[in-house]
Amino acid sequence: MNTYQPIIGLEVHVELATKSKMFCGCPAEHFGIEPNTHTCPVCLGLPGALPVPNRKAVEWTILLGLALGCQINEHSKFDRKNYFYPDLPKGYQISQYEEPLAINGSLEIRNSKSEIRNIRIRRVHLEEDTGKLQHTTVNGKDISLADFNRSGVPLVEIVTEPDFRSVDEVDQYLKKLQKIVRYLGISGTDMEKGSMRLEPSISIAQIAKHSRSYKHGKDFEHKLPDYRVELKNINSFRFARKALEYEIQRQTEILEKGETPTQQTRGWSEAKNATIPQREKEGESDYRYFPEPDIPPLRISNEQLAIINKQIPELPDAKSTRFQKEFSLTEHTSNLLAEDKSVADYFEEAVKNSLAASPSPLTPIIDVANWIINKKIDINQTLPAELIQQILRSKQSSQIDESELEKIIVQVFAENPKAVEDYKKGKLQVVGYLIGVCLKKGNFHQAQIKEAVEKKLRNV
């Protein structure tokens, strides 16, 4: 009897937030812009137009590669990836193939079983984005219109090895990668704007009963299935999860019939709640890669690498670990604070404000963390110093309320000695009576009074 193991790899495309495009001076902003207004002969692929690489895009790609533990190639070059599609005006895409900027990195994740998994990153390379097709109806006919505002926008691609063994691991990796990119400040990774797009590749391995399950690592590469299905241009983590779950089921059913799934490219249809075939999957040879003749090879010096490496900030995992050690916060609380760099910075600034007047914080650090997390503080509207004052006022008010409630309970117990004596004799129903009397004397929540009355009765 066979069991089935998903084998999943990922290609993640991230648009870099540079001011200009990859090979020309056109503005890189394209979301919500009037179609075909941010274009020029270079990004429209007109004859005679020559590309000039965007230095900032190259540096940011190296920055991401370093943050992912990659080896940066001293020599790198651009290649032409040849294919024909209406959103590709030149008939080829300038990308990187044989000598990408960064190779052999990794990203550590923790799956739902709390297992630490090291996902190998094969390459981080730089290319230009394509145009965008808009499907509409004109004069009763379904047509597609091409908007080339996006054509030529710097696009970094992060390619993993097929190391994922569950949908959950894919989800954890994607969310962690998104946080790292945002911490670096090189992209907003706004899924709804298309600045982060996901392309999982999945196949299903048949594992004979009693044999070892598939793991990640080079020792198992030779056992990989001889087909794969690529899911194109998925723009949300939720859709990626649903598409992969659907494919696992679809491909498993095919294998159970003794057949092999077709190697192809498929897309996700939210309306059908299913993946749909787009085209047969190309091999790398189909793209007829060759070196881009209009762009000289790049040489990255050690001095340049050192400068770029210094730009890497404290990343989410390291920040969370420091919060646990420095502020004695739980791992869960620290992770929540470190989710967003601006929130983490705000938290630290608030702590500084609390410590400013005295070595002992005016309010416990855990209170600062909980207020930011639970009350969802608008960090753009409330200054860190104002937050500390809000917490202090709240604690003072709470202390006054507790003092007032204590007075009321003492008074009610004094006015109802028989009820108190009945409680001592085991008549627990009098608790409700005492709570009711207290409720009439003060503006407190019932749960708050109940807790205080029961505590007081235990000590009489």
UniProtKB/TrEMBL annotation:
Any GO molecular function: asparaginyl-tRNA synthase (glutamine-hydrolyzing) activity
Q: Which residues does the UniProt record annotate as the domain Asn/Gln amidotransferase?
A: 345-457
Q: Where is the stretch described as Disordered? A: 259-289
**What EC number(s) does this enzyme carry?**
6.3.5.-
What keywords were assigned to this record? ATP-binding, Ligase, Nucleotide-binding, Protein biosynthesis
Q: Name one Pfam family in it.
A: GatB_Yqey
**Superkingdom per UniProt:** Bacteria
* Biological processes per GO annotation: glutaminyl-tRNAGln biosynthesis via transamidation; translation
Q: Which residues cross the membrane?
A: none
Task: Give the reaction(s) catalysed.
Answer: L-aspartyl-tRNA(Asn) + L-glutamine + ATP + H2O = L-asparaginyl-tRNA(Asn) + L-glutamate + ADP + phosphate + 2 H(+); L-glutamyl-tRNA(Gln) + L-glutamine + ATP + H2O = L-glutaminyl-tRNA(Gln) + L-glutamate + ADP + phosphate + H(+)
Keyword Nucleotide-binding listed? The answer is: yes
- State where composition is biased (Basic and acidic residues): 278-289
Q: Which family does it belong to?
A: Belongs to the GatB/GatE family. GatB subfamily.
State the function annotated in the UniProt record: Allows the formation of correctly charged Asn-tRNA(Asn) or Gln-tRNA(Gln) through the transamidation of misacylated Asp-tRNA(Asn) or Glu-tRNA(Gln) in organisms which lack either or both of asparaginyl-tRNA or glutaminyl-tRNA synthetases. The reaction takes place in the presence of glutamine and ATP through an activated phospho-Asp-tRNA(Asn) or phospho-Glu-tRNA(Gln).
Q: Known HAMAP family for this protein?
A: GatB
Q: Tell me the subunit arrangement.
A: Heterotrimer of A, B and C subunits.
Question: Know the name of this protein?
Answer: Aspartyl/glutamyl-tRNA(Asn/Gln) amidotransferase subunit B
Please tell me the species this chain comes from: Candidatus Gottesmanbacteria bacterium RIFCSPHIGHO2_01_FULL_47_48
Q: Which gene encodes it?
A: gatB
